[in-house]
Amino acid sequence: MYGKKKRKSGKKITGDNGKGRTKRIVLYCAAGTLAVLLLLYLGISFYFSSHLFFNTSLDGYDCSGKTASQAEEILQKRAAEYELKIISKDGKSYVIPGQDIDVSMKNNEASIEKVIGEQNAFAWIAALFEKHNQEISLEISYNAEKADSIISAQDILNEEGTESVSAYPKYDGTQFVVEPEVYGTKVDGEMLKEKMDKAVKSLNPSLDLEKEECYSTPKYTSESEEVKAACDLMNQYCKTSITYTMGEDVVLDKNTISGWLHTDENMNVSIDENAVKSWLEEFGNKYDTVGVTRNFTTPTGKSATVSGGTYGWSIDEDTEFTAILDAVKKGETLSKEPAYYIGGEAASHTMPDWGTTFAEVDLSQQHMWYVKDGAVQLETDVVTGEPIPSMITPEGVYSILEKSLDEVLVGETNPATGQPIYRTPVDYWMRVTWTGIGFHDANWQSAFGGTLNQIHGIGSHGCINMPVDKAAALYDMIEIGTPVVIHY
Questions:
Q1: Residues 35, 55: one domain?
Q2: Is 385 part of a structural domain of the chain?
Q3: Which of 160, 207, 277, 302 has the largest CB neighbor count within 10 A?
Protein backbone atom coordinates (compact mmCIF):
# COMPACT_ATOMS: atom_id res chain seq x y z
CA MET A 1 0.00 0.00 0.00
CA TYR A 2 2.73 2.32 0.92
CA GLY A 3 4.58 1.78 -2.31
CA LYS A 4 1.54 2.54 -4.50
CA LYS A 5 0.93 5.83 -2.84
CA LYS A 6 4.46 6.96 -3.55
CA ARG A 7 4.08 6.23 -7.27
CA LYS A 8 0.90 8.37 -7.56
CA SER A 9 2.63 11.26 -5.90
CA GLY A 10 5.60 11.15 -8.28
CA LYS A 11 3.41 11.35 -11.43
CA LYS A 12 1.82 14.64 -10.37
CA ILE A 13 5.15 16.36 -9.84
CA THR A 14 6.44 15.34 -13.30
CA GLY A 15 3.29 16.73 -15.18
CA ASP A 16 3.36 20.17 -13.59
CA ASN A 17 6.97 20.84 -14.49
CA GLY A 18 6.42 20.14 -18.29
CA LYS A 19 3.58 22.57 -18.71
CA GLY A 20 5.55 25.41 -17.11
CA ARG A 21 8.47 24.90 -19.39
CA THR A 22 6.21 25.11 -22.48
CA LYS A 23 4.71 28.37 -21.37
CA ARG A 24 8.09 29.80 -20.70
CA ILE A 25 9.31 28.80 -24.14
CA VAL A 26 6.29 30.42 -25.82
CA LEU A 27 6.81 33.58 -23.88
CA TYR A 28 10.48 33.67 -24.74
CA CYS A 29 9.70 33.19 -28.46
CA ALA A 30 7.03 35.88 -28.47
CA ALA A 31 9.32 38.28 -26.70
CA GLY A 32 12.05 37.52 -29.14
CA THR A 33 9.77 38.02 -32.12
CA LEU A 34 8.55 41.31 -30.77
CA ALA A 35 12.09 42.39 -30.14
CA VAL A 36 13.06 41.50 -33.69
CA LEU A 37 10.01 43.30 -35.09
CA LEU A 38 10.73 46.27 -32.93
CA LEU A 39 14.32 46.33 -34.07
CA LEU A 40 13.17 45.95 -37.67
CA TYR A 41 10.58 48.75 -37.25
CA LEU A 42 13.15 51.01 -35.61
CA GLY A 43 15.68 50.15 -38.26
CA ILE A 44 13.29 50.95 -41.08
CA SER A 45 12.25 54.11 -39.28
CA PHE A 46 15.88 55.08 -39.05
CA TYR A 47 16.18 54.34 -42.76
CA PHE A 48 13.34 56.73 -43.57
CA SER A 49 14.96 59.44 -41.53
CA SER A 50 17.26 59.89 -44.53
CA HIS A 51 15.15 58.45 -47.34
CA LEU A 52 11.84 59.35 -48.88
CA PHE A 53 8.86 57.16 -48.06
CA PHE A 54 7.76 54.52 -50.51
CA ASN A 55 5.01 55.68 -52.90
CA THR A 56 6.52 59.17 -52.88
CA SER A 57 6.78 61.41 -55.97
CA LEU A 58 8.47 64.76 -56.24
CA ASP A 59 6.60 67.05 -58.57
CA GLY A 60 5.23 63.95 -60.30
CA TYR A 61 8.52 62.06 -60.55
CA ASP A 62 8.78 58.74 -58.64
CA CYS A 63 11.50 59.02 -56.03
CA SER A 64 10.34 56.27 -53.65
CA GLY A 65 12.95 55.24 -51.07
CA LYS A 66 15.56 57.63 -52.41
CA THR A 67 17.95 59.83 -50.53
CA ALA A 68 18.03 63.52 -51.29
CA SER A 69 21.05 63.12 -53.59
CA GLN A 70 19.54 60.09 -55.36
CA ALA A 71 16.23 61.94 -55.90
CA GLU A 72 18.15 64.94 -57.17
CA GLU A 73 19.90 62.72 -59.71
CA ILE A 74 16.51 61.47 -60.95
CA LEU A 75 15.19 65.00 -61.35
CA GLN A 76 18.35 66.28 -63.03
CA LYS A 77 18.31 63.33 -65.41
CA ARG A 78 14.72 64.08 -66.32
CA ALA A 79 15.64 67.71 -67.01
CA ALA A 80 18.66 66.70 -69.09
CA GLU A 81 16.59 64.24 -71.16
CA TYR A 82 13.54 66.49 -71.41
CA GLU A 83 11.85 67.18 -74.72
CA LEU A 84 8.51 68.82 -75.45
CA LYS A 85 6.11 67.43 -78.00
CA ILE A 86 3.67 70.03 -79.34
CA ILE A 87 0.52 68.52 -80.88
CA SER A 88 -1.64 70.55 -83.30
CA LYS A 89 -5.36 70.10 -83.93
CA ASP A 90 -4.72 68.62 -87.37
CA GLY A 91 -2.64 65.79 -85.87
CA LYS A 92 0.79 67.19 -86.62
CA SER A 93 3.39 67.03 -83.88
CA TYR A 94 6.53 69.06 -83.32
CA VAL A 95 9.29 67.93 -80.96
CA ILE A 96 11.52 70.48 -79.27
CA PRO A 97 14.50 68.89 -77.47
CA GLY A 98 15.21 70.52 -74.14
CA GLN A 99 18.89 70.87 -74.97
CA ASP A 100 17.95 72.98 -78.02
CA ILE A 101 16.37 75.57 -75.76
CA ASP A 102 18.91 75.24 -72.91
CA VAL A 103 16.58 73.63 -70.38
CA SER A 104 18.27 73.41 -66.95
CA MET A 105 17.19 72.73 -63.37
CA LYS A 106 18.42 74.37 -60.20
CA ASN A 107 19.78 71.98 -57.50
CA ASN A 108 16.91 70.76 -55.32
CA GLU A 109 18.74 68.76 -52.61
CA ALA A 110 17.92 71.25 -49.88
CA SER A 111 14.24 71.14 -50.77
CA ILE A 112 14.28 67.34 -50.90
CA GLU A 113 16.03 67.11 -47.54
CA LYS A 114 13.36 69.38 -46.12
CA VAL A 115 10.68 67.00 -47.40
CA ILE A 116 12.52 64.06 -45.79
CA GLY A 117 12.94 65.99 -42.57
CA GLU A 118 9.24 66.74 -42.41
CA GLN A 119 8.39 63.05 -42.75
CA ASN A 120 7.40 61.25 -39.55
CA ALA A 121 9.84 58.37 -39.95
CA PHE A 122 7.92 56.27 -37.45
CA ALA A 123 4.81 56.50 -39.67
CA TRP A 124 6.45 54.62 -42.54
CA ILE A 125 3.97 51.73 -42.24
CA ALA A 126 1.02 54.01 -43.02
CA ALA A 127 2.95 55.38 -45.99
CA LEU A 128 2.93 51.91 -47.53
CA PHE A 129 -0.78 52.20 -48.20
CA GLU A 130 -1.07 55.68 -49.70
CA LYS A 131 0.69 57.69 -52.39
CA HIS A 132 2.39 60.99 -51.71
CA ASN A 133 3.22 63.65 -54.31
CA GLN A 134 5.35 66.33 -52.75
CA GLU A 135 5.59 69.71 -54.44
CA ILE A 136 9.08 71.15 -54.20
CA SER A 137 8.68 73.88 -56.83
CA LEU A 138 11.28 72.81 -59.34
CA GLU A 139 13.14 75.81 -60.69
CA ILE A 140 13.42 75.20 -64.43
CA SER A 141 14.91 77.73 -66.80
CA TYR A 142 15.24 77.80 -70.58
CA ASN A 143 16.08 80.14 -73.44
CA ALA A 144 12.78 81.72 -74.54
CA GLU A 145 14.37 83.37 -77.60
CA LYS A 146 15.56 80.02 -78.90
CA ALA A 147 12.10 78.59 -78.28
CA ASP A 148 10.52 81.43 -80.28
CA SER A 149 12.92 80.83 -83.16
CA ILE A 150 12.08 77.13 -83.27
CA ILE A 151 8.35 77.87 -83.14
CA SER A 152 8.69 80.28 -86.07
CA ALA A 153 10.94 77.97 -88.07
CA GLN A 154 8.51 75.07 -87.76
CA ASP A 155 5.52 77.34 -88.40
CA ILE A 156 3.77 76.09 -85.28
CA LEU A 157 1.83 79.36 -85.19
CA ASN A 158 0.34 78.52 -88.62
CA GLU A 159 0.62 82.10 -89.84
CA GLU A 160 -1.45 81.29 -92.91
CA GLY A 161 -4.21 79.73 -90.84
CA THR A 162 -7.63 81.25 -90.31
CA GLU A 163 -8.69 83.40 -87.38
CA SER A 164 -11.60 82.37 -85.23
CA VAL A 165 -14.83 84.29 -85.76
CA SER A 166 -17.26 84.99 -82.95
CA ALA A 167 -20.92 84.20 -83.16
CA TYR A 168 -22.88 87.26 -84.24
CA PRO A 169 -26.40 88.43 -85.18
CA LYS A 170 -27.10 87.79 -88.86
CA TYR A 171 -30.16 88.90 -90.81
CA ASP A 172 -31.69 85.91 -92.61
CA GLY A 173 -34.15 87.90 -94.69
CA THR A 174 -36.84 87.78 -92.03
CA GLN A 175 -35.13 88.38 -88.72
CA PHE A 176 -31.79 88.43 -86.97
CA VAL A 177 -30.57 85.01 -85.86
CA VAL A 178 -27.37 83.90 -84.18
CA GLU A 179 -24.74 82.98 -86.73
CA PRO A 180 -22.56 80.30 -85.02
CA GLU A 181 -18.94 80.91 -84.18
CA VAL A 182 -16.15 79.53 -86.35
CA TYR A 183 -12.98 78.13 -84.82
CA GLY A 184 -9.85 79.01 -86.73
CA THR A 185 -6.61 77.18 -87.34
CA LYS A 186 -4.27 80.00 -86.43
CA VAL A 187 -2.40 79.66 -83.14
CA ASP A 188 -2.55 82.50 -80.65
CA GLY A 189 1.13 83.36 -80.24
CA GLU A 190 0.81 84.86 -76.76
CA MET A 191 -1.25 81.95 -75.49
CA LEU A 192 1.27 79.44 -76.93
CA LYS A 193 4.13 81.21 -75.15
CA GLU A 194 2.22 81.13 -71.88
CA LYS A 195 1.30 77.44 -72.14
CA MET A 196 4.75 76.42 -73.37
CA ASP A 197 6.42 78.26 -70.51
CA LYS A 198 4.21 76.40 -68.07
CA ALA A 199 4.88 73.03 -69.75
CA VAL A 200 8.65 73.44 -69.86
CA LYS A 201 8.93 74.70 -66.29
CA SER A 202 6.99 71.67 -65.07
CA LEU A 203 8.87 69.33 -67.46
CA ASN A 204 5.55 68.31 -68.97
CA PRO A 205 6.43 66.13 -71.97
CA SER A 206 3.54 67.22 -74.22
CA LEU A 207 1.45 70.26 -75.09
CA ASP A 208 -1.83 69.69 -76.91
CA LEU A 209 -2.59 73.03 -78.57
CA GLU A 210 -6.31 72.37 -78.86
CA LYS A 211 -6.81 71.07 -75.32
CA GLU A 212 -4.78 73.94 -73.93
CA GLU A 213 -6.86 76.41 -75.98
CA CYS A 214 -3.84 77.82 -77.79
CA TYR A 215 -5.81 78.50 -80.95
CA SER A 216 -7.39 81.89 -81.40
CA THR A 217 -10.79 81.41 -79.84
CA PRO A 218 -13.98 83.32 -80.59
CA LYS A 219 -14.94 85.84 -77.97
CA TYR A 220 -18.61 84.93 -78.28
CA THR A 221 -20.31 81.61 -79.01
CA SER A 222 -23.86 80.69 -79.97
CA GLU A 223 -24.64 80.34 -76.29
CA SER A 224 -23.35 83.75 -75.29
CA GLU A 225 -26.06 85.85 -73.69
CA GLU A 226 -24.57 88.99 -75.22
CA VAL A 227 -25.19 87.70 -78.75
CA LYS A 228 -28.73 86.62 -77.93
CA ALA A 229 -29.48 89.99 -76.36
CA ALA A 230 -28.10 91.80 -79.42
CA CYS A 231 -30.34 89.69 -81.68
CA ASP A 232 -33.39 90.53 -79.56
CA LEU A 233 -32.67 94.26 -79.67
CA MET A 234 -32.01 94.27 -83.42
CA ASN A 235 -35.25 92.38 -84.04
CA GLN A 236 -37.05 94.94 -81.89
CA TYR A 237 -35.64 97.70 -84.08
CA CYS A 238 -36.71 95.78 -87.18
CA LYS A 239 -40.35 95.93 -86.08
CA THR A 240 -40.28 99.53 -87.29
CA SER A 241 -42.29 100.32 -90.41
CA ILE A 242 -42.70 103.86 -91.76
CA THR A 243 -44.99 104.41 -94.74
CA TYR A 244 -44.45 107.74 -96.47
CA THR A 245 -47.59 108.79 -98.29
CA MET A 246 -46.38 110.65 -101.36
CA GLY A 247 -48.69 109.81 -104.22
CA GLU A 248 -47.02 106.44 -104.30
CA ASP A 249 -46.32 104.95 -100.88
CA VAL A 250 -42.68 104.62 -99.90
CA VAL A 251 -42.20 101.99 -97.19
CA LEU A 252 -39.20 101.99 -94.88
CA ASP A 253 -39.14 98.66 -93.05
CA LYS A 254 -36.89 95.87 -91.79
CA ASN A 255 -35.56 95.09 -95.25
CA THR A 256 -33.78 98.43 -95.21
CA ILE A 257 -33.40 98.98 -91.47
CA SER A 258 -31.66 95.62 -90.98
CA GLY A 259 -28.80 96.91 -93.12
CA TRP A 260 -28.34 99.86 -90.76
CA LEU A 261 -27.84 97.73 -87.65
CA HIS A 262 -24.42 96.65 -86.46
CA THR A 263 -22.70 95.32 -83.35
CA ASP A 264 -19.26 96.24 -82.05
CA GLU A 265 -16.66 93.92 -80.51
CA ASN A 266 -18.63 93.94 -77.25
CA MET A 267 -21.99 93.16 -78.90
CA ASN A 268 -23.30 96.68 -78.38
CA VAL A 269 -25.94 97.41 -81.04
CA SER A 270 -25.71 100.63 -83.01
CA ILE A 271 -27.57 102.25 -85.89
CA ASP A 272 -25.34 103.34 -88.76
CA GLU A 273 -26.27 107.01 -88.92
CA ASN A 274 -24.34 107.55 -92.13
CA ALA A 275 -26.40 104.80 -93.75
CA VAL A 276 -29.61 106.52 -92.59
CA LYS A 277 -28.39 109.81 -94.08
CA SER A 278 -27.48 108.10 -97.33
CA TRP A 279 -30.95 106.58 -97.55
CA LEU A 280 -32.53 109.98 -96.92
CA GLU A 281 -30.30 111.55 -99.57
CA GLU A 282 -31.44 108.98 -102.13
CA PHE A 283 -35.02 109.45 -100.95
CA GLY A 284 -34.72 113.20 -101.43
CA ASN A 285 -33.01 112.88 -104.81
CA LYS A 286 -35.86 110.73 -106.02
CA TYR A 287 -38.78 112.71 -104.65
CA ASP A 288 -37.48 116.29 -104.28
CA THR A 289 -38.59 118.36 -107.24
CA VAL A 290 -37.05 121.79 -106.56
CA GLY A 291 -35.02 122.75 -109.60
CA VAL A 292 -35.61 119.52 -111.53
CA THR A 293 -36.51 119.48 -115.20
CA ARG A 294 -40.22 119.13 -115.77
CA ASN A 295 -42.02 118.35 -119.02
CA PHE A 296 -45.46 119.87 -119.56
CA THR A 297 -47.88 121.32 -122.09
CA THR A 298 -48.67 125.04 -122.22
CA PRO A 299 -52.24 126.37 -122.47
CA THR A 300 -51.63 126.76 -126.23
CA GLY A 301 -50.78 123.05 -126.58
CA LYS A 302 -47.07 123.64 -126.92
CA SER A 303 -44.77 120.98 -125.42
CA ALA A 304 -42.21 122.62 -123.16
CA THR A 305 -39.64 121.90 -120.45
CA VAL A 306 -38.60 123.98 -117.48
CA SER A 307 -35.86 123.62 -114.91
CA GLY A 308 -34.54 125.63 -112.01
CA GLY A 309 -36.42 127.81 -109.59
CA THR A 310 -37.39 127.47 -105.96
CA TYR A 311 -40.76 125.75 -106.16
CA GLY A 312 -41.31 122.07 -105.47
CA TRP A 313 -40.97 119.33 -102.92
CA SER A 314 -37.92 119.51 -100.65
CA ILE A 315 -37.72 116.93 -97.89
CA ASP A 316 -36.27 118.20 -94.62
CA GLU A 317 -33.68 115.48 -94.26
CA ASP A 318 -32.35 116.73 -90.91
CA THR A 319 -35.77 116.61 -89.27
CA GLU A 320 -36.62 113.30 -90.90
CA PHE A 321 -33.28 111.82 -89.78
CA THR A 322 -34.15 112.46 -86.15
CA ALA A 323 -37.68 111.14 -86.66
CA ILE A 324 -36.42 107.89 -88.21
CA LEU A 325 -33.91 107.21 -85.45
CA ASP A 326 -36.56 107.81 -82.81
CA ALA A 327 -39.06 105.51 -84.55
CA VAL A 328 -36.49 102.72 -85.00
CA LYS A 329 -35.46 102.80 -81.35
CA LYS A 330 -39.12 102.47 -80.37
CA GLY A 331 -39.97 99.87 -83.01
CA GLU A 332 -42.92 101.99 -84.17
CA THR A 333 -45.30 101.59 -87.09
CA LEU A 334 -46.12 104.94 -88.71
CA SER A 335 -47.86 106.33 -91.76
CA LYS A 336 -46.96 109.93 -92.54
CA GLU A 337 -45.81 112.58 -94.98
CA PRO A 338 -42.12 113.32 -94.63
CA ALA A 339 -41.08 116.58 -93.05
CA TYR A 340 -40.44 119.34 -95.63
CA TYR A 341 -38.37 122.48 -95.48
CA ILE A 342 -40.34 125.72 -95.22
CA GLY A 343 -41.74 126.39 -98.66
CA GLY A 344 -40.66 122.94 -99.74
CA GLU A 345 -44.09 121.64 -100.58
CA ALA A 346 -45.86 121.48 -103.91
CA ALA A 347 -49.43 121.05 -105.07
CA SER A 348 -49.03 117.51 -106.35
CA HIS A 349 -46.64 114.57 -106.26
CA THR A 350 -47.38 113.84 -109.90
CA MET A 351 -45.65 115.84 -112.61
CA PRO A 352 -45.96 118.66 -113.27
CA ASP A 353 -46.09 119.15 -109.50
CA TRP A 354 -47.61 122.63 -109.61
CA GLY A 355 -51.03 121.12 -110.09
CA THR A 356 -53.92 122.81 -111.90
CA THR A 357 -53.70 126.35 -110.49
CA PHE A 358 -50.68 128.42 -111.51
CA ALA A 359 -49.33 131.41 -113.38
CA GLU A 360 -47.29 130.75 -116.51
CA VAL A 361 -44.94 133.03 -118.43
CA ASP A 362 -43.65 132.05 -121.88
CA LEU A 363 -40.46 134.06 -122.40
CA SER A 364 -40.33 133.13 -126.08
CA GLN A 365 -43.88 134.33 -126.81
CA GLN A 366 -43.76 137.18 -124.26
CA HIS A 367 -47.14 136.02 -122.99
CA MET A 368 -48.54 134.96 -119.65
CA TRP A 369 -51.56 133.04 -118.39
CA TYR A 370 -53.22 132.58 -115.05
CA VAL A 371 -54.81 129.14 -114.83
CA LYS A 372 -57.13 128.12 -112.04
CA ASP A 373 -58.40 124.56 -111.63
CA GLY A 374 -57.17 123.80 -115.12
CA ALA A 375 -58.98 126.69 -116.83
CA VAL A 376 -57.40 129.91 -118.09
CA GLN A 377 -58.76 132.83 -116.08
CA LEU A 378 -56.50 135.56 -117.46
CA GLU A 379 -53.89 135.99 -120.19
CA THR A 380 -51.94 138.89 -121.62
CA ASP A 381 -48.85 139.88 -123.52
CA VAL A 382 -46.01 141.01 -121.28
CA VAL A 383 -42.55 142.53 -121.42
CA THR A 384 -39.88 140.58 -119.56
CA GLY A 385 -36.22 141.22 -118.85
CA GLU A 386 -33.82 142.42 -121.48
CA PRO A 387 -31.85 139.33 -122.57
CA ILE A 388 -28.54 140.29 -121.03
CA PRO A 389 -27.09 138.48 -117.95
CA SER A 390 -27.80 141.29 -115.48
CA MET A 391 -31.42 141.83 -116.58
CA ILE A 392 -32.76 138.56 -117.99
CA THR A 393 -35.88 137.09 -116.40
CA PRO A 394 -34.82 133.78 -114.76
CA GLU A 395 -36.30 130.54 -116.03
CA GLY A 396 -37.71 128.12 -113.45
CA VAL A 397 -40.66 127.29 -111.26
CA TYR A 398 -41.31 129.70 -108.42
CA SER A 399 -44.26 130.86 -106.33
CA ILE A 400 -45.91 134.11 -105.30
CA LEU A 401 -44.02 135.14 -102.18
CA GLU A 402 -45.90 138.33 -101.31
CA LYS A 403 -48.44 140.85 -102.65
CA SER A 404 -48.64 144.54 -101.98
CA LEU A 405 -50.14 147.74 -103.40
CA ASP A 406 -48.46 151.04 -104.20
CA GLU A 407 -44.86 149.89 -103.99
CA VAL A 408 -41.70 151.68 -105.14
CA LEU A 409 -39.35 149.25 -106.82
CA VAL A 410 -35.72 150.14 -106.11
CA GLY A 411 -32.87 148.96 -108.31
CA GLU A 412 -29.28 148.17 -107.45
CA THR A 413 -26.97 150.98 -106.38
CA ASN A 414 -24.94 152.61 -109.11
CA PRO A 415 -21.33 152.73 -107.82
CA ALA A 416 -20.66 155.92 -109.76
CA THR A 417 -23.52 157.92 -108.22
CA GLY A 418 -24.19 155.97 -105.06
CA GLN A 419 -27.89 156.02 -106.00
CA PRO A 420 -30.22 153.22 -107.14
CA ILE A 421 -30.24 152.76 -110.90
CA TYR A 422 -34.01 153.19 -110.76
CA ARG A 423 -36.91 153.98 -108.47
CA THR A 424 -40.15 152.88 -110.04
CA PRO A 425 -43.56 153.27 -108.37
CA VAL A 426 -46.12 150.55 -109.21
CA ASP A 427 -49.72 150.02 -108.16
CA TYR A 428 -49.71 146.21 -108.04
CA TRP A 429 -46.75 144.17 -106.89
CA MET A 430 -46.65 140.35 -106.83
CA ARG A 431 -43.18 139.08 -105.81
CA VAL A 432 -41.78 135.89 -107.41
CA THR A 433 -38.18 135.88 -106.05
CA TRP A 434 -36.47 137.51 -103.10
CA THR A 435 -33.93 138.94 -105.53
CA GLY A 436 -36.56 141.35 -106.86
CA ILE A 437 -38.38 139.52 -109.68
CA GLY A 438 -42.16 139.77 -109.79
CA PHE A 439 -45.34 140.73 -111.69
CA HIS A 440 -46.34 144.37 -111.70
CA ASP A 441 -48.13 146.96 -113.77
CA ALA A 442 -46.03 149.04 -116.21
CA ASN A 443 -47.95 152.14 -117.31
CA TRP A 444 -44.82 153.47 -119.04
CA GLN A 445 -44.90 150.68 -121.61
CA SER A 446 -46.71 151.67 -124.81
CA ALA A 447 -47.05 148.08 -125.98
CA PHE A 448 -46.47 144.51 -124.83
CA GLY A 449 -45.47 141.22 -126.41
CA GLY A 450 -43.49 140.49 -129.53
CA THR A 451 -39.78 141.20 -129.21
CA LEU A 452 -40.02 144.46 -127.34
CA ASN A 453 -38.07 143.03 -124.40
CA GLN A 454 -35.02 142.77 -126.65
CA ILE A 455 -34.91 146.53 -127.19
CA HIS A 456 -32.66 148.29 -124.77
CA GLY A 457 -34.65 150.63 -122.57
CA ILE A 458 -37.91 148.72 -123.15
CA GLY A 459 -36.96 145.33 -121.80
CA SER A 460 -37.38 145.19 -118.01
CA HIS A 461 -34.73 144.64 -115.36
CA GLY A 462 -36.09 141.10 -114.95
CA CYS A 463 -39.66 141.66 -113.80
CA ILE A 464 -42.77 140.68 -115.76
CA ASN A 465 -44.30 143.98 -116.92
CA MET A 466 -48.09 143.86 -117.42
CA PRO A 467 -50.79 146.24 -118.62
CA VAL A 468 -52.28 148.04 -115.63
CA ASP A 469 -55.73 146.48 -115.94
CA LYS A 470 -54.31 142.98 -116.33
CA ALA A 471 -52.04 143.50 -113.35
CA ALA A 472 -55.00 144.69 -111.30
CA ALA A 473 -57.08 141.67 -112.32
CA LEU A 474 -54.25 139.23 -111.58
CA TYR A 475 -53.65 140.86 -108.22
CA ASP A 476 -57.24 140.18 -107.25
CA MET A 477 -57.12 136.55 -108.48
CA ILE A 478 -53.76 135.20 -107.49
CA GLU A 479 -52.87 134.06 -103.96
CA ILE A 480 -49.62 133.93 -102.07
CA GLY A 481 -48.04 130.50 -102.66
CA THR A 482 -49.46 130.10 -106.18
CA PRO A 483 -46.86 128.39 -108.45
CA VAL A 484 -45.30 130.53 -111.17
CA VAL A 485 -43.85 128.74 -114.22
CA ILE A 486 -41.37 130.77 -116.30
CA HIS A 487 -40.02 129.04 -119.41
CA TYR A 488 -39.03 129.42 -123.05
A1: no
A2: yes
A3: 207
